[in-house]
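Help needed: design a sequence for this.
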């Protein structure tokens, strides 16, 4: 039906009712339409009897002959009140004033309707906080539809659920239901509204909330909230209309503000996601600060030895690890490790490994045995889903001897002048297999020699053209850097690689450790 025809067929509620005379008694006109009026009176009228209604409108007195179509008793308030439907018997003299009145009421109703929509949209979009949004939408429903209670559900497509915050609950408690379950869940699944005049008669209605709260749900209107693309973003459930029953007019009103509710809910959802992102960023920043403090400052009192080290995670937290452990007999344990993957999971494994190594290294002089124990510990935790490439060296400052186990890590380099010795792998990465043998090897760091340990974030660094820095280029860089004073080696290497990346976001953590034995 075209909008103009639909509007002309509707009955217009008169608020407040218009005082009138029905024959010789006073009545109130409740609503009016092209075919007749409905009046409230205190006496029953015979059906099909002829009556004359007289009333004033905009200064004019209008008298219309009518036929009683029905007369219904309404004793809801304890009084004998009758709602009487009267059909017009229009004459040439009365039709024009009545039509004029209905047209004026239509115009006024349309203006009031637009004002209501504007006020409702302003109220709904006044806040992006879910609690405030819930209060705003419920306020509109209470004012315009006259309901007692309501619940606003958000649709969580990722989890296949709808959720609602409990009204006034500052602790953020939520109700969560699978899409498709219950009345609200079924509306979220089908997109079709559900109108119940007797909620307890519907098997989908869950009475447990009423039983726990003492509230009695009588009628219920549950409608989907759709955005302009038709996607369901929420469900609005309204309970117990105070006057009359839920009907088509209520559905039309909610449909008219559905776009505004959808925009507000999507903004609220984005706001929640932003708050969650900011919370995670704060947590990760704190994690980065803690992880940074776990990376030790290189000791400055190791005999005839200079040390330097730096770790640069590509995200807030990383899976690279280095450490210096002073052992009881004066030796120094030097460790560098790289956990597979990046981010929080890698950081947790790194912290666990660091704690285990700091406890075990001073008590176990057999490096191969120590690595085997670390391997068993890590495998029990990750079942091979995560592994750690690890270089563990035991350095004797008085002799320059370096005993080591290289568990699948990038080969460290001992550099003196143009000579470069690479310390190759002596076992698989730890955590990869449940029972993995490791072999200890040894090397000498000559006076003036430099040991450089690094993770693959250096050789695998990429520029915007996805060209890798590469091992050959890295070895040349490390040999050149080894001629510099110890503190400058680290900064020179990292500056060169960062320049190579040309602003491309790093794809991996970068760690470098430098140990230089003094000329004796």
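Sure. Designed sequence:
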């Amino acid at each position: 039906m075209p909008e103009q025809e639909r509007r002309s067929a509707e009955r217009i509620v008169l608020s407040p009712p218009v005082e009138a005379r029905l024959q010789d008694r006073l009545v109130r006109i409740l609503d009016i339409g092209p075919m007749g009026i409905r009046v409230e009176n205190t006496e029953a009228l015979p059906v099909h009897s002829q009556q004359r209604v007289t009333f004033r409108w905009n200064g004019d007195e209008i008298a219309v002959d009518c036929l009683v179509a029905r007369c219904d008793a309404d004793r809801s308030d304890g009084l004998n009140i009758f709602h009487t439907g009267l059909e017009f018997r229009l004459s040439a003299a009365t039709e024009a004033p009545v039509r004029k009145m209905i047209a004026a009421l239509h115009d006024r109703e349309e203006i009031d309707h637009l004002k209501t929509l504007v006020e409702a949209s302003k109220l709904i979009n006044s806040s992006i906080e879910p609690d405030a949004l819930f209060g705003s939408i419920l306020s509109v429903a209470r004012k315009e539809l006259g309901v007692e209670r309501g619940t606003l559900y958000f649709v969580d497509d990722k989890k296949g659920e709808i959720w609602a915050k409990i009204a006034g609950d500052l602790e953020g408690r939520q109700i969560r239901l699978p899409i498709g379950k219950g009345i609200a869940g079924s509306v979220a699944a089908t997109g079709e509204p559900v109108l119940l005049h007797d909620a307890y008669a519907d098997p989908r209605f869950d009475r447990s909330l009423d039983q726990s709260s003492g509230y009695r749900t009588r009628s219920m209107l549950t409608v989907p909230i759709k955005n302009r693309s038709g996607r369901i973003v929420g469900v609005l459930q309204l309970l117990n209309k105070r006057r009359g029953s839920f009907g088509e007019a209520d559905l039309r009103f909610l449909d008219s503000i559905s776009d505004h509710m959808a925009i507000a809910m999507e903004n609220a959802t984005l706001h929640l996601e932003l708050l969650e992102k900011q919370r995670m960023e704060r947590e990760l920043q704190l994690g980065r600060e803690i992880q940074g403090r776990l990376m030790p400052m290189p000791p400055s009192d190791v005999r005839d030895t200079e040390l330097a080290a730096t770790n640069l995670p590509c995200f807030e937290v990383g899976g690279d690890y280095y450490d210096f452990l002073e052992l009881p007999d004066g030796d120094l344990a030097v460790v560098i490790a790289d956990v597979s993957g990046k981010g929080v999971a890698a950081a947790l494994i790194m912290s666990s490994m660091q704690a285990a190594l700091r406890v075990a290294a001073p008590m176990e002089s057999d490096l191969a045995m120590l690595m085997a124990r670390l391997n068993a510990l890590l495998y029990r935790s990750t079942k091979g889903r995560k592994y750690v490439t690890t270089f563990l060296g035991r350095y004797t400052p008085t002799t320059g001897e370096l005993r080591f186990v290289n568990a699948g890590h990038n080969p460290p380099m001992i550099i003196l002048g143009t000579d470069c010795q690479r310390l190759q792998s002596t076992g698989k990465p730890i955590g990869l297999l449940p029972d993995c043998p490791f072999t200890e090897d040894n090397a000498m760091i000559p006076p003036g020699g430099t040991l450089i340990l690094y993770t693959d974030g250096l050789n695998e660094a990429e520029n915007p053209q996805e060209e890798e820095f590469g091992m050959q280029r890295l070895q040349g860089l490390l040999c050149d850097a080894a001629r510099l004073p110890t503190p400058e080696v680290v900064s020179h290497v990292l500056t060169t690689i960062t320049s190579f990346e040309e602003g491309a976001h790093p794809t991996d953590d970068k760690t470098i450790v430098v140990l230089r034995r003094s000329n004796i």
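The radius of gyration is 40 Å.
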